[in-house]
């Protein structure tokens, strides 16, 4: 992407909120950059990255104290920020699900593989962008026994698994595992098939996602991975 198109992106015109204590105001500042990272899959300009990272740090740090300087033992405002990010990821995955649902099988599986790659890279970047939320609040919640809080990277994985993969598997016109098995056997109509190296690349991306999402031991995803390995991966020497 050219520097000109980057300079025209709206997040470069949004200033950090004057106060770091208002979650709605903070999210209005963060959201355009989160959208950009998840949909364009390119790094933010350095100044924008530093600005957001610092703002998140200041927000989490500010909510650790009362106005008179007393430390707060729990940080509900950080929980609000975490929920905002979680809800946004759900909405993002919903868009992918809706488009996937309207594609033919061959196109759908290619779309899935491409979007997974984009989503994975975006999630990795967000994990760095929200590093202080991970390091301070998430770590603290987990140490206190909260099993429903995850790092930003893990949270993104869970939403893809629950709100896309398992939703397609349970609610889709055709199960995701069935589409993958048909692609492995090349049992698509001529206008919806995957050919040659593109087919292998797409299937590798899909099966890699199953592994990353801890689905490798779950039937029928395990069968997909076994058949893919048997057919396309060379034996180990």
From TrEMBL:
One of its GO terms (biological process) is ubiquitin-dependent protein catabolic process. GO terms for molecular function: ubiquitin protein ligase binding. Residues 27-235 form the Cullin N-terminal domain. InterPro entries: Cullin_N, Cullin_repeat-like_dom_sf. Belongs to the cullin family. This is Cullin repeat-like-containing domain protein. It comes from Ephemerocybe angulata.
């Amino acid at each position: 992407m050219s520097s000109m198109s980057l300079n025209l992106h709206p997040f470069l015109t949004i200033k950090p909120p004057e106060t770091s204590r208002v979650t709605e105001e903070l999210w209005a500042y963060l959201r355009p950059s989160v959208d950009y990272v998840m949909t364009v899959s390119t790094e933010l300009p350095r100044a924008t990255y530093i600005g957001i990272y610092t703002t998140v740090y200041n927000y989490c740090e500010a909510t650790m104290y009362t106005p008179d300087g007393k430390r707060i033992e729990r940080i509900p405002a950080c929980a609000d920020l975490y929920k905002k990010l979680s809800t946004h990821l759900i909405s993002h995955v919903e868009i992918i699900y809706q488009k996937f649902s309207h594609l033919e099988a061959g196109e759908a599986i290619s779309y899935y593989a491409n979007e997974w790659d984009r989503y994975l890279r975006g999630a990795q970047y967000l994990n760095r962008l929200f590093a202080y939320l991970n390091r301070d609040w998430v770590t603290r919640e987990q140490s206190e026994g909260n099993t429903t809080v995850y790092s930003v990277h893990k949270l993104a994985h869970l939403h893809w698994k629950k709100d896309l993969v398992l939703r397609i598997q349970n609610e889709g016109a055709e199960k995701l595992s069935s589409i993958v098995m048909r692609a492995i056997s090349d049992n698509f109509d001529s206008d919806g098939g995957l050919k040659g190296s593109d087919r292998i690349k797409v299937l590798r991306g899909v099966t890699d996602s199953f592994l990353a999402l801890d689905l490798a031991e779950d039937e029928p995803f395990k069968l997909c991975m076994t058949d893919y390995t048997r057919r396309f991966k060379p034996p180990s020497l």
